[in-house]
Specification:
Largest sheet: 3 strands, antiparallel
Number of helices: 9
Strand content: 5-15%
Number of strands: 12
Strand order of the largest sheet: 2-1-7
Length: 368
């Protein structure tokens, strides 16, 4: 019977269900008064009719937290659980028939001062239950008292209302917690998205720098190849001249060994003329001093380094419209699309490619 009685206890007032008993959509039961109290605490701004719910609203079941949605009839639109009401009636009759003859309740407390007196009144002044003897002769004779039953019903109603209010507050707090958790998830998503954008911007900057470096190296390589080819050409000319001089020297040595004076004189005049012409190197080009120097391709990134160190997130007042694209020119002169504001800042940060050297500075000096 004790287990059955536990099943017939209202989760709000903690007493056995009182008629009428309403059944919620989740199949849990409540006293109609308790259901109405929860409804009023969860919907404090809805209009009421005679202190009872008379318009649509919602509250949560105190047993399973299932949300109960009411129509315009409010709590009176919930169906009564006649089965539970009949079980309660049968239980009460069975309990009365099996109860022994009326005796003094075992659990009823007695007064600590007057041990034979039951506690049957409530001292409103001191806020404690007491007995009639304490009121007549004891410490509460000058206090205001009230029947114990009336105070019991009042405080029990207040406690029930407080529990119902706590249920409504718990629902609101749970809603706030859910909103905060959703805010945390939104912050994490926004953080991941913004970090991805930052990485994308820096990758774009790396690409521009790599392309710029390639173009500048190609410029240096082109002048290097031009100068090497020119020096190689002059080297071949000097080599050919040296080879011809060597042959003339061999001819001269053979002529010196000629024993016949007449023959020697016949060959010596033309040979001397050839030697004089071969000794003249004025027709051979000479390389100008500093021709090998390529220091004019030096690069300084002090200004750009300071600009890169000052990279930060744009403030609202400095932010430009990123959705508009403008046509820009990349490092090799090709027309391309650059994001508004981004191309201009990169052009200012990176040094321009050096123009081709004038041919007057590249030509070697010729001997006079």
């Amino acid at each position: 019977m004790d287990s059955l009685e536990k099943q017939l206890i209202c989760p709000i007032c903690l007493e056995m269900f009182t008629k009428p008993v309403v059944i919620l959509p989740c199949q849990h039961n409540l006293c109609r008064k308790c259901a109405n109290d929860i409804f009023q605490s969860s919907n404090p701004y809805l209009p009421t009719r005679g202190g009872t719910g008379a318009s649509g609203g919602r509250f949560r079941c105190p047993s399973c937290r299932h949300e109960v949605v009411l129509d315009r009839h409010g709590v009176y639109g919930l169906q009564r659980n006649l089965l539970v009401e009949n079980i309660i009636d049968m239980y009460k009759q069975e309990n009365i028939s099996s109860r022994p003859s009326p005796e003094r309740k075992v659990d009823q407390p007695v007064c600590e001062v007057h041990e034979d007196e039951k506690i049957n009144i409530y001292c409103l002044t001191c806020g404690v239950p007491t007995c009639s003897m304490c009121k007549v002769f004891g410490s509460h004779k000058d206090c205001e008292v009230a029947p114990l039953n009336s105070i019991y019903q009042t405080q029990k109603t207040e406690l029930s209302d407080g529990i119902a209010m706590m249920v409504g507050n718990n629902d609101r707090i749970q809603g706030i917690i859910s909103q905060l958790e959703e805010t945390c998830r939104t912050i994490e998503d926004n953080g991941r998205r913004q970090k991805s954008k930052v990485c994308e911007k820096f990758d774009h900057l790396y690409t521009i720098l790599e392309d710029r470096k390639t173009q500048m190296n190609l410029k240096v390589n082109a002048e290097q190849e031009e100068k090497l080819n020119y020096i190689h050409g002059i080297t071949r000319k000097y080599g050919d001249h040296l080879e011809s001089m060597t042959k003339i020297m061999e001819t001269g040595i053979q002529t010196m060994e000629e024993p016949e004076m007449a023959v020697f004189l016949q060959n010596a005049k033309s040979l001397l003329q050839i030697i004089a012409e071969a000794s003249n190197t004025s027709h051979l080009e000479k390389v100008e001093h500093g021709y090998e120097n390529m220091d004019h391709y030096s690069v300084s990134f002090k200004k750009e380094g300071r600009a890169l160190q000052n990279i930060d997130f744009a403030r609202d007042d400095d932010e430009e419209e990123e959705d508009e694209d403008e046509v820009g020119v990349d490092v090799d002169g090709r027309a391309g699309q650059t994001t508004s504001g981004e191309g201009d800042s990169l052009k200012e940060a990176l040094p321009p490619l050096l123009p081709p050297q004038p041919m007057s500075t590249l030509k070697p000096a010729t001997s006079s």
